[in-house]
Amino acid sequence: MHRREPARPKVVQSVVLFLFTSALAGALVAGLALPLAGLAGVTTAKAHDTVQYLPQDLKAAPVSQKSIIQAADGSLIATLYQENRVPVTLRQISPMMRKAIVAIEDDRFYEHGALDAKGTLRALLRNQSQGAVQQGGSSITQQYVKMNLIEKAKTPEEAAAATADTYERKVAELRYAIAVEKEYSKDQILEKYLNLANFGDGAWGIEAAALHYFSVHASQLTLPQAAMLAGLVKNPTGYDPTNNMKRAKERRDVVIRRMQELNIVTAAQAAAALKTPVIDPKKVRNVPNGCANSKYPFYCEYIVSQLKNNPSFGKTPQAAENYIETAGLVIRTSLDPRIQKAAEDSMKKHSKASDQAVAAVTIVEPGTGLVKAMAQSKPYGNKKGQTSYNYNVEKSYAGGYGGFQNGSTMKAFTIAAAIEKGVPLTYRINSPQQIDLSGHKFATCSGTTSAPDYKPKNSTKTILDPSMIDAARASTNTYFLQLSEQVGLCPIATIASKLGMQDAQTMKPLQQVPSFTLGSAGLITPLMLANAYATFAARGKYCTPQLVTAVTTSKGKSIPVKGRSCKQALTPQVADGVNYVLNKVMEPGGTGGKLKFGRSDLAGKTGTINGNIAVWFAGYSTRLAAASVVADATPKYTDLARLTLNGKKIGNASGSGTAGPIWETALQGALKGLPSTHFVRPDDLTIRGNVKDLPQLKGVLPPIAIAQLQQLGFQAEVSPTPVDSDAPAGTVAYTSPRQEDGAPAGAKITLYLSNGSKATPPPPPTTPGPPGTPPTIQLPPGWPTCPPTDPRYPKCRRR
């Protein structure tokens, strides 16, 4: 059976939509709400439903705008954005630009309501004749609504719905447009429109577009410039002059002629504008996006990683990142360009990107924790000789390398713990080139620890019986191991923790192992070490490292960030003592003696780890503290002697000779021009220590000497190697520490026995005394049977 073809729905829709549009325009003028009940009879059910369930107003999307990161002096470090946009007020946009956009997009904008009925009808008829949507009739208000819906879209489906070529979307835009026109004036709508619009080539909003294409502000746009930008809105990609100059000119000229038709410009003005080049390619200004394009990419990435973990910016790192890139923030940091340049100049002087070894240095301000500079030998990137790793920081984000063992720079914390316990700076310990500590129990915070086969050696020559100062100057391993055994690992580890030292891979406490003082307790970063040493420079005041000093929104509102956080981690007296000891390291003959410069007091310490995989130098004045490292950062790690630095084989790597020059050049440049400063001399109690007097034991038999020491609360041991002395053979020649220096309570006193080489020959032996004489102590063969210098044995004679 033949069935009649149904009427074409598009014809009906067109007529109905025309009637609806006319009615809607009248309703808008009258200031009335959309008559939803009547709408059901004059449009499709789908259109009716679309309108019926729309909100009564348009909740505008926050305008995405670029954020900037600034150095301490306000200079630009980086720009972060998803859309390069700088919002401006309508007064900050040239009148010519306002006229140009209205002329080409909606010349009756100031005359009609939410929509232009004439323009809409014209577009409908054109589209109907073509069988599809070919021409837009949208007012500027409707376009603004569409931009908002696109901006708010969080999924591809929402974005597609916001741009769908359907009449239903048009109806939805109209309903929203009514609400917008009720809430804002025409000028306010135009301002929002120009700030939200896409002008192509990564420029969003009129200010960013003016700066990008012409290197001028929006307030300075001329007729041809304004016409070009106004023409871009219709097709930002197709009319982009950086892609197609010819099409861009054709579109610009259309705008200029339209402005002439509307008598906005004269024929002469139009003719002159048409002859003007579209753009000057030399003035096109791109805005680099992200840390990779920053002058200081590693510093920048570390800052962003910290902000992404700040709940003030988002509940998740992803949410925080989105906020940072769209909120128009101004992020002020601690980076000092002058000090950063000094650090980078040092890297250029002492290393090359092509080196097999890597080098890094961090500079921190004592007393504030402000991180002034970070530099490293390998530049940012993924090409040969480049890296995305930041060798200065912990592994708290993908780019953080996570540190290296830091060797003998850990001895500073042992010195601090010893001083805190009352150990004098003159405290002497017999420190041969190698000692056997196998099985020795080192007290920890939770018990004891030991190493079954541990026979450490010195890597430098030293005197046999050094003081703490002597041992620091020569970096005597055997001295500091014994000192840490006597002081205990817990006090040393506690001080290190108070000063921010932790494992840079796990961010957990350092392991309390016998070799803690030699830097094998975990992996440390230059940032950690520089900041810890800054605590000594600040007389015991520890400050958490601070890179971000302030964050404000585009409206000037402050966002909470971790501010300066300082505490007195050590007493000033303990810090003064550490400064006194480490200052001697920088004097001639010390391991840092060749690195001394200027008139300011300097203190420092070298560090070398087993296998020479990494070498360090950390040091400071009262103004700045810095730590430098040279290391192999490529598994399988190898001795630095085999690698290159500054284009040459390193050979004999050392803290003073390899890492030290980087520290020296960087800190010298950073301190250049600043007044000299000096450390506070420690008081006499700190130098002499909180010690107890030792008895005079020269010439006393070991068992009796040990008994006396134990009665006074000391520990005692006998050195197995006799020494030259004028004391009788087998008796005490001297102690370590010396009797005149005293020793802290509970300290271990080493007795050195005389070999009799300088003693007067003893007389022949005599018979034992009568009953009542004190019993003879059982001694090893070769020892005298009684102490000739002890008054308690008046009848004892020499053999």
How far apart, in Å, are the first and last alpha carbons? Answer: 146 Å
* Helix-strand category: alpha+beta
Tally of distinct domains: 4
Shape: elongated
For the biggest sheet, the summary is: 5 strands, antiparallel
Summarize model confidence as the mean pLDDT: 87
Number of helices: 25
CATH topology of the largest domain: Beta-lactamase
Rg from Cα: 40 Å
Sheet-strand content, in percent, reads 5-15%
Low-confidence spans: 1-19, 22-44, 132-136, 766-780, 787-793, 795-799
User: Architecture of the largest domain, CATH level 2?
Assistant: 3-Layer(aba) Sandwich
Give the strand tally: 20
CATH class category of the largest domain: Alpha Beta
What percent of the residues sit in helical stretches (DSSP H or I)? 25-40%
CATH homologous superfamily (4th level) name of the largest domain: DD-peptidase/beta-lactamase superfamily
Q: Give the strand line-up of the largest sheet.
A: 5-4-13-12-11
Region (Disordered): 719-799
Biased composition (Pro residues): 760-791
Protein name: PASTA domain-containing protein
Domain PASTA: 689-755
Describe the structure.
The model is unreliable at 1-19, 22-44, 132-136, 766-780, 787-793 and 795-799 (pLDDT under 50). The longest helix has 21 residues, at 9-29. Strand 4 (358-364) and strand 5 (371-376) form a beta hairpin. Helices cover 35% and strands 11% of the residues. The N and C termini lie far apart (146 Å). Helix 6 crosses helix 9 (186-196), helix 12 (245-261) runs antiparallel to helix 13 and helix 16 packs antiparallel against helix 23. It contains 25 helices and 20 strands. The protein has a 5-stranded antiparallel β-sheet with strand order 5-4-13-12-11. A 4-stranded mixed β-sheet has the order 2-1-3-9. A 3-stranded mixed β-sheet has the order 17-20-18, covered by helices on one side. The protein has 799 residues and is α+β, with helices and mostly antiparallel strands. It has 4 domains: 89-253, Biosynthetic peptidoglycan transglycosylase-like (Penicillin binding protein transpeptidase fold), CATH 1.10.3810; 332-406 and 530-689, DD-peptidase/beta-lactamase superfamily (Beta-lactamase), CATH 3.40.710; 407-523, DD-peptidase/beta-lactamase superfamily (Beta-lactamase, 3-Layer(aba) Sandwich), CATH 3.40.710.10; 691-799, Trypsin Inhibitor V, Chain A. The chain is elongated.
